[in-house]
Amino acid sequence: MRRHKMGRSLIKHLSFAVIFMLLMTLSGSSNGDEILDDNCTTKDVIDITVEEAWELLSNISNGVQIPVDVRTDEEWRSERINTSYPEYPRHYNLYDLQENETLLQDLLSTYNGMEIILYCKSGGRSAIAGNLLSCSGFNGTIYNMLGGITEWKNKGFPTKVGNTPPNQPDHPIGSTTGKVNTLLNYSCLGNDPDDDVVRYGWDWDGDNKVDEWTDYHPSKTTITVPHLWTSAGIYNIKVMVE
């Protein structure tokens, strides 16, 4: 898996497929005001050794824990810990999480209620990331892997070197006309050369910013996403895969 760059978030490769102009008929209502919650709740971040992390990740009787790499894009592309699907490591650059609220909310919503194992080079940045997620109200269990990937390698646990970006996704299939406030379905298929799990970012208004991310899916799996528009217009739809 890999990160791509859109807006201020660090993202590796864009794989856009501009599909068609969607003509929406009828007039629509305006969007409601967004309400922001400034409350900050905290949860304990659990420190674990690399041996404990390996046991959690290699024994399905422990449930599913998702490793999350918070190093830079360059570090991630160079080498990362290697675990099997569906626990394959995800990547969120800590510095992007600190500066990009949209990216932070994406992580919080993607892993809502799950168990995640944060790691970096030696454990410092992952501890900071754990505190950030905890303060942001993460609803799940946060582990911090002490010693990071450096200690992981010292103990002889597997890593993966290099990363090939996913291919450009197929052109999505879906409606070209519709009515406001009516769900329309769009399907797309992505292929990753490394056979990593992938997710799809949908740009519903053509501004080159992802409006909605899907969950992660196995490579070469067709996914279908519903969407509705609240105002009439012509929308240039794009999709990317990472």
Describe the protein's architecture and organization:
With 242 residues, this protein is an alpha/beta fold. It has two domains: 89 residues, Immunoglobulin-like (Sandwich); 117 residues, Rhodanese-like domain (Oxidized Rhodanese, domain 1, 3-Layer(aba) Sandwich), CATH 3.40.250. Helices cover 21% and strands 26% of the residues. The chain is built from six helices and 16 strands. The strands form five sheets. The protein has a five-stranded parallel sheet with strand order 2-7-6-3-5. A three-stranded mixed sheet has the order 10-1-15, with no helix packed on it. Strands 9-11-14 form a three-stranded antiparallel sheet, with no helix packed on it. Strand 12 and strand 13 form a beta hairpin. The relative contact order is 0.24. The N terminus is likely disordered.
Helix-strand category: alpha/beta
Low-confidence stretches: 1-42
CATH level-1 class of the largest domain? Alpha Beta
Counted by DSSP, the helix tally is: 6
By DSSP, the count of extended strands is 16
The SSE string, one letter per element, is EEHEHEEHHEHEHEEEEEEEEE
Number of domains: 2
- How far is it from the N-terminal to the C-terminal residue, by CA? 6 Å
Q: Based on the structure given, which CATH architecture of the largest domain is correct? A: 3-Layer(aba) Sandwich
Q: Looking across the biggest beta sheet, what order are the strands in?
A: 2-7-6-3-5
Round the Cα radius of gyration to an integer and report it: 19 Å
Bin the strand percentage: 25-35%
What is the arithmetic mean of pLDDT? 79
* Largest β sheet strand count, sense and barrel closure: 5 strands, parallel
**CATH homologous superfamily descriptor of the largest domain:** Rhodanese-like domain
What overall form do the CA principal axes indicate? elongated
